[in-house]
Amino acid sequence: MRHSFFCIDGHTAGNPVRLIVGGAPLLKGDSMSARRQDFLARFDWIRTGLCFEPRGHDMMSGGFLYPPTRDDSDVGILFIETSGCLPMCGHGTIGIITFALEHGLILPATPGRLKVEVPAGVIDIAYEADGDKVTAVSIVNVPAYVAARDIKVEVEGIGALSVDVAYGGNYYAIVEPQGGYTGLDDMGAARLIELGGLIRQAVQAKFEPVHPLDPTIRGVSHVLWADKPRADGADGRNAVFYGDKAIDRSPCGTGTSARLAHLAGSGQLAVGDRFVHESYIGSLFTGRVESETTIAGQPAIIPSITGSAVATGFNMIWIDRSDRFWDGFQV
Ligand code: PYC
Hints:
This protein is α+β, with helices and mostly antiparallel strands. The protein is built from six helices and 17 strands.
């Protein structure tokens, strides 16, 4: 049996975004969070088939548009990625919204603004356009907070580390320069990946975060290596490790949100402050601490992230069950 998926491919700040506009499965569930669980239970082969080799690669990421389940939202997004179905993805949202607007797939009731239901909650979008081209997308994200500070781990190859865990739509282990971690340029991508996997495992063994309002969102999925900036105008640089072998090419929207909560929580940022985050390859997102809030009584912030995306082409992808590698593989 052959399944066809019509995709708009592109990138946000260098990281891939595959918007699947044809071939989305019908999902059960009265929220995007419930639909995420249904997708994982019944259709995960679509994610692995479209994200893993030979149709994808280590960084592949994307999503589907769905009608929202809530009256206050214009559209719903389900994210797919090599590591799973993320509750929220910042670079993915910027790409998906850009491609959908540029191709007339979403007609906002209020030009320039959208409310989007994602598995992690509801986000507000503001966008700018020049004719048919979307030039910038800003996301006012779900509440971000620091889940734990100073988790001490001992990791082979780098030694003792103190790591903080913050949530920005996914849970991040944040590693600042210290001891054996002397900065991104000293390490190189291969070591950041190898050590990122070991750090994620070591942190998880000591502390498994669970979202206080949605227990299906749990576990440290990403490691954010923090560093000082290199690019003009940037305030910080990062390399975000995800999946098994990926370093985010973008500054990572949910990672930037987690980092904003992390810096605000230690008094290094205040409401209204901007933080320009530089990625491993030098691309930029502008983050901002919009306001303070709480999540189940814990201090939290509402972060925003602004960036832009570029569509690179249409892609009609087949998944044919007679292909030995129909649902993809990883090495
Ligand atoms: O931009 O939120 C993000 C993201 C998550 C994983 C890769 N990018």
